[in-house]
Design brief:
Distance between the termini: 74 Å
Strand order of the largest sheet: 1-2
CATH class: Mainly Alpha
Number of helices: 15
Radius of gyration: 23 Å
Strand content: under 5%
CATH architecture: Orthogonal Bundle
Order of helices and strands: HHHHHHHHEEHHHHHHH
Oligomer: single chain
Number of strands: 2
Shape: globular
Number of domains: 1
CATH topology: Ammonium transporter fold
Largest sheet: 2 strands, antiparallel
Helix content: over 70%
């Protein structure tokens, strides 16, 4: 009896690989359900990333500012939803091949022939809307603790309905730089992170530094936050949510090839993030004689951004190297920015603008289909356009309704009342 059992087990082991190779394609209905579910989950990941970003800023900021930062995050998501519905989606997806500008019109769901599209139009819009909120969160982080709510929300509406969609159309929608220059940006290094980082640079410069941040041109350390564990937890949530976003940017989850690609992107991204975090730990230990928690939290995001231009093609060791350079950038760049009296409260200029640029530039190292001149041209466009337009918007807001919030000691009683308001 034992011999028969062993023979049956051996036969099963031999047959199993052949059966795995004979797996057939999923039905159209199954593929539709899987890809629709993918976009819904990725959209939730994008929105969760925005709230994780806000939670991280709360952990880095002084406790007095926490209610205002919570309100800021809720508000920017709200205005992005309506701005993206009004103009943002069709600016991305109604652009002519090789064009520069899409159509200004409201999005409407279209599921008349769902199987030919392959997914629900509403699920895809939901995912794209979540992506549109991320650049506004990046900008809000840079000017944390000193900008008024309503100017920030006005800017967020313009970012979600105009600035980000135009850049995303150039990169992802078949626009000029993706078509004529063959810009490769699978995970949004240019479309999302460089757009948000360059707009954050303009905002930080025009809004100015926090009160007491620079005295006679010398950088000063403000009173430390007591909620750094909250910021560390938010970094972990941001890491997890971004992996869901990357799966959505892969475009499908309904074939074996798509599932393998999603797994490869997740592995490369987590390796890059880990390498960046450990690099930040090591550098701060060497330079400052103690490991830096804030630097390590920001390095997690820096590693994800650095690999985001192409998380699919690098080998494992290449992903580690790309992430490690991101960790170096986010560690050494903040003191350099301080020399120009730039107060980047969320460290987003190094983590998103500079690491996004690094990620775009390094793509041809692992991807033979990428073209170095095209990467450079796309990088310049994705940085220059948001920088100039955001600068104009923030300048207009500064000299019209004003952008600076009052110092903390003047608003303390108001914030306390807000805490206990229903």
């Amino acid at each position: 009896m034992g011999r028969y059992c062993l023979a049956a087990l051996a036969a099963a082991v031999m047959i199993a690989p052949a059966a795995a190779q004979e797996l057939g394609p999923a039905s159209e209905t199954t593929r539709y359900a899987l890809d629709t579910g993918l976009f819904l989950i990725a959209g939730l990941g994008a929105i969760l990333f925005v709230f994780a970003f806000g939670l991280r800023d709360i952990g880095l900021a002084r406790a007095l500012h926490a209610p205002a930062l919570c309100l800021r995050t809720i508000g920017l998501v709200g205005v992005t939803v309506f701005a993206f519905w009004a103009t943002g989606y069709n600016l991305i997806h109604m652009i002519e091949r090789g064009g520069l500008l899409g159509d200004f019109q409201f999005w409407l769901p279209d599921d008349a022939d769902p199987l030919s599209v392959g997914y629900s139009s509403g699920a895809y819009w939901f995912f794209q809307m979540g992506l549109a909120a991320i650049p506004s969160a990046i900008v809000a982080s840079a000017v944390s603790e000193r900008v008024k709510l309503w100017p920030l929300l006005i800017f967020s509406a313009l970012m979600g309905g105009l600035i980000y969609p135009i850049v995303a159309a150039w990169v992802w929608g078949g626009g000029y730089f993706g078509d004529a220059w063959r810009l490769y940006d699978l995970g949004g290094a240019a479309a999302i992170h460089i757009t948000g980082g360059s707009a954050a640079l303009a905002a930080a410069y025009i809004v100015g530094a926090r009160q007491g941040r620079f005295v006679d041109g010398v950088p000063q350390r403000l009173s430390p936050s007591t909620a750094l564990p909250l910021a560390a937890f938010a970094g972990g949530v941001g890491l997890i949510s971004w992996l869901a976003v990357l799966a959505g940017l892969g475009g499908s989850f309904s074939t074996i090839e798509a599932a393998i690609s999603a797994g490869s992107m997740a592995v490369n991204s987590i390796l890059a993030a880990a390498a960046a975090a450990l690099t930040g730990l090591a550098l701060t230990q060497i330079v400052y004689k103690r490991a830096g928690l804030v630097t390590s939290i920001n390095a997690l995001f820096a590693g994800l951004v650095a690999i985001s231009a192409d998380p699919l093609h690098p080998s494992l060791w290449q992903a580690v190297m790309i992430g490690a350079v991101g960790g170096v950038i986010v560690t050494v760049a903040p003191p350099f920015l301080e020399r120009f009296r730039l107060d980047d409260a969320g460290f987003v200029i190094p983590a998103h603008l500079l690491c996004g640029a690094w990620g775009i530039i390094i793509v041809p190292w692992s991807n033979p289909d990428a073209w170095f001149p095209g990467q450079i041209a796309g990088l310049i466009a994705a940085a220059a356009f948001p920088l100039m337009l955001s600068g104009l918007v923030w300048t207009a807001l500064k000299y019209s309704i004003g952008v600076r919030s009052r110092p903390p000691e003047e608003t303390q009683s108001e914030l306390l009342r807000e805490d206990i308001a229903p």
